[in-house]
Design goal:
It is built from 15 helices and four strands. The strands form two sheets. It has a two-stranded parallel ribbon with strand order 1-2. Strands 3-4 form a two-stranded parallel ribbon. The protein is 62% helix and 2% strand. Helix 3 runs antiparallel to helix 4 (100-107), helix 6 (162-170) packs across helix 10 and helix 6 packs across helix 15. The chain has one domain (5-362). It has 364 residues and is mostly helical.
């Protein structure tokens, strides 16, 4: 993989990067508080894991018909998404706790989704956060089949109606990870990324196989063995659970990056992006619904993507407090702070971008 460098001679950009960092750090110093999680995060963690685990236990312990069980798998999907956004995400970034073993423990909740921690760390922490919205590097905007998320990706006829069908395919996100993790790890191994992070390719592959076998046995095998439901009813419940989680996760992720005002810059022939990295993050991310208390609780700060990308080592429970600091600093330096005031505004903006990306005008 060809490396990209963020290079600029613009002193204002460098001054902004230093100022926003200093201003946010000063907030924590003045308050005398840690940048890591607090009791709010701990309550979120217990709540989200319970929303996932308790319905699963009820399916085993209470007599119920198939429709009630199916409803419980929907609840499980909501719990999976919440656990991913509120718990796993912070933990793998190292912002859950200042203790590494705690971060590792709760980062492992990703295995409850049937996904792989190492792959997530590379795809999300490294590629997405370093090369945000850069087509060919940021796999979160990688165009796949019927969905086109990047301006520079090939345009096909099926993309014309993606603003309608994209949300169905978003629901396949977590279920596809069960298989995609294997091809993704093979790519990381061949690209030398695995060894770059001092991990052994074969060991990581064997760990992935083992964890996925255990996951599938628990989530599919045990219900077939220990409940009165037929194998096909269990499989349907499994798919509904994953579709629910995938639809929520994908929609929330895309509403922060594939919206109006979020740029998708490309490096020049020398692999250079002519922005200071912090400015690049400002230009490629968007906040939405900052005052929506339920959303702030459920999506784990993913509606504060500007703050998260500038400060991924800070726990999401602090984003609502530091967002005005970041916004004020950006405006002082003349940079646009891309904020969608509500969930509806962000959702509509994402749909508009899907329409643009599905038509020839979006080709550059």
């Amino acid at each position: 993989m060809k490396s990209i460098k963020f290079v600029t001679n613009d002193s204002k950009q460098k001054q902004f990067a230093a100022a926003v960092r200093n201003n946010v750090n000063d907030y924590f110093k003045e308050k005398g508080i840690s940048t890591k999680g607090n009791y709010v995060l701990y309550i979120q963690t217990i709540s989200m894991i319970c929303v996932y685990i308790i319905p699963f236990i009820l399916i085993f312990t209470l007599p119920m018909n198939a429709w009630v069980a199916l409803l419980l798998t929907v609840v499980m999907g909501i719990g999976i998404a919440g656990t991913g956004m509120c718990v796993m995400h912070d933990a793998i970034h190292g912002s859950f706790s200042d203790k590494e073993w705690v971060n590792k423990l709760f980062g492992g909740t990703l295995y409850l989704l049937g996904a792989n921690v190492f792959n997530w760390r590379i795809q999300h922490n490294f590629l997405h956060h370093t090369y945000t919205n850069i087509e060919g590097y940021d796999q979160d905007i990688e165009s796949r089949g019927p969905i086109r998320l990047a301006d520079h990706s090939p345009l096909r006829r099926i993309h014309r109606y993606q603003f309608i069908h994209a949300f169905f395919f978003y629901g396949l996100m977590t279920i596809s990870k069960l298989v995609k993790d294997f091809t993704q790890l093979i790519y990381y191994n061949k690209a030398g990324i695995t060894r770059k992070f001092n991990f052994h390719p074969t060991k990581e592959y064997l760990k992935m196989v083992l964890y996925k076998i255990v996951y599938l046995f628990v989530i599919i095998g045990l219900p077939i063995m220990l409940t009165p439901f037929t194998w096909w009813q269990v499989v349907i419940g499994f798919l509904v659970m994953h579709w629910t989680a995938g639809a929520i996760l994908s929609t929330i992720f895309q509403m922060a990056h594939v919206v109006e005002g979020a740029e998708q810059p490309m490096p020049n022939a020398q692999g250079i992006i002519h922005y200071e990295w912090a400015v690049h993050e400002m230009l490629t991310t968007s906040d939405f619904a900052r005052n929506n208390h339920f959303l702030n609780w459920y999506v784990g700060g993913l509606n504060f993507q500007i703050e998260h990308h500038l400060f991924p080592n800070i726990c999401h429970v602090h984003y609502q407090k530091i967002a005005p600091i970041v916004e004020k600093t950006a405006r002082e330096f003349g940079y646009t702070y891309n904020l969608k005031p509500s969930f509806a505004n962000a959702f509509v903006s994402h749909v508009k971008r899907l329409k643009e990306l599905g038509r020839p005008l979006a080709v550059s």
